[in-house]
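Entry for adenosine-5'-triphosphate complex. Fields follow.
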Amino acid sequence: MAVHEVPVYTGLVKDIKLDTTKDAVVIENVSKVFKKSRPFWEWFRADKKRDERTIWAVDHVSLNVKRGEIVGILGANGSGKSTLIRMLSTLLIPDEGHISIFGYDVIKDERMVQRLINRVSVEASFFKRLSPMENLLYAARLYNMSGAEARANIKAILARLGIKPDRIHAPLENMSRGMQQKVAIARAFLTSPVVLLLDEPTTGLDPRSKLDVQKFVYELREQHDATILITTHDMDEADALCDRVAIIDQGKIMALGTTAELKQHVARLMNREKPVSMNEVFMHYTASHLITEEDIARYGSWEKAFEALEAQREEEDEE
Ligand SMILES: Nc1ncnc2c1ncn2[C@@H]1O[C@H](COP(=O)(O)OP(=O)(O)OP(=O)(O)O)[C@@H](O)[C@H]1O
């Protein structure tokens, strides 16, 4: 099998030979279960089976991502997006199934996977009293980047993300949350991601900053062949940026495809001539009952099936 070196632009992964014939990310039948203990007022109940509530945060998920692809993970709050991303980045261990990055297993080859992936999340840790430049120089040093190379890269990336030169040397603690988030994104870009995991990177950013980040993500893929998984609540963002999206609900993938495919499919179910919006696609796949073609035939239209099934659900909940 041919082994090619992936072109990357900083020191971190220069020495790693990747088998680029393999998919960048392979997720096979992966589950993660959390146990939540019941509230203390229920401790004395005789029914011991209810001692713990089991939450299938990720429930038998399979997904392959090709090298250079941008895949969006869309889901409501608590649907399992972050848990999935955390397993990909070796922060959590799957209870079932396998995950590999370019053939490297997240458990057996943890170190190698950590060199290949980079995760950006809102809870990024920084030295708040130091400036963006100082924080990023610190990160660059950890990755053995030379000072001169790092400074030039940091300036270029921060400028590209719309951070003004006068903010680069001011303490991070004086910056808004959105600005700090951009610095977290800059850090991930700086350290040469082969696979970049972006956990809600644009949540809380103003529209211009959102666009700055989206454009940069796109460029990163175009120019550096990065593979990108991005979780988002923003359907327009998913539509604009992602080659494919996976819609996840209660830990399960409910739909996977290009946004155009999913829009057409849902439009057909809803009996619309024009493709529906991504918001409507999302509502369809995350409704409390997934509406099937049989439901539509039975109730006459998607809307009627939706109303009837929601009413049925409310009745069940009241019982
Ligand atoms: N460490 C944990 N211990 C117990 N339960 C957890 C833990 N982490 C996540 N969960 C639960 O697992 C489920 C999925 O959570 P997760 O954070 O992955 O969702 P999410 O889709 O990323 O949500 P959000 O959009 O709000 O960030 C939720 O029910 C959550 O309460």
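NOTE: Confidence is low (pLDDT under 50) at residues 1-12.
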